[in-house]
Design a protein that fits this description.
With 143 residues, this protein is mainly alpha-helical. It is extended and about 70 Å long. The protein has three helices and no strands. The relative contact order is 0.08.
Length: 143
């Protein structure tokens, strides 16, 4: 009943269930495996030799800084979303005066803490806004 895992370099066929996997998870994994198997690299012209795969060269310090910037960006995005939802609830009259005060103080404290973290690492809140190309910036404009 327990089949050994495939040897390195070998792949489990989609009809082979993973040992211990739930049926829905196994079906999703098989479908994902099939999709990746069907993806092919675009053909290269016959007169052009295939190019070697590009490798990303990073050093330990730049990876840490990039990860920190990404985490700060996600926190700022969530802060802005929560702030906008809070404003909707205030406008709708869903909150008591005390809840509004507490929410406002909490959001201001979060904004200040995020600003301090950014300053500590040499960023501004505007530096966290990723350019998504044709989709525009990640973060909505500051009001």
């Amino acid at each position: 009943m327990n089949e050994p895992d495939p040897a390195p370099g070998e792949r489990r066929t989609p009809s082979e269930p993973s040992p211990g996997a739930s049926p829905p998870l196994d079906r999703a994994g098989s479908a994902l495996n099939d999709a990746f198997r069907l993806l092919q690299a675009p053909p290269t012209p016959a007169d052009e030799p295939p190019r070697p795969a590009r490798r990303l060269r990073t050093d330990h310090e730049s990876v840490e800084e990039d990860l920190l910037k990404l985490v700060l960006t996600v926190v700022e995005l969530l802060r802005q979303l929560i702030e906008r939802q809070a404003l909707r609830r205030v406008d709708a009259g869903d909150l008591t005066d005390d809840q509004e005060e507490e929410l406002g103080a909490t959001l201001m404290a979060l904004h200040d803490a995020l600003s301090d973290l950014c300053a500590e690492h040499g960023y501004t809140l505007q530096d966290l806004n990723l350019d998504l190309g044709p989709l525009g910036p990640l973060l909505p404009p500051a009001d």
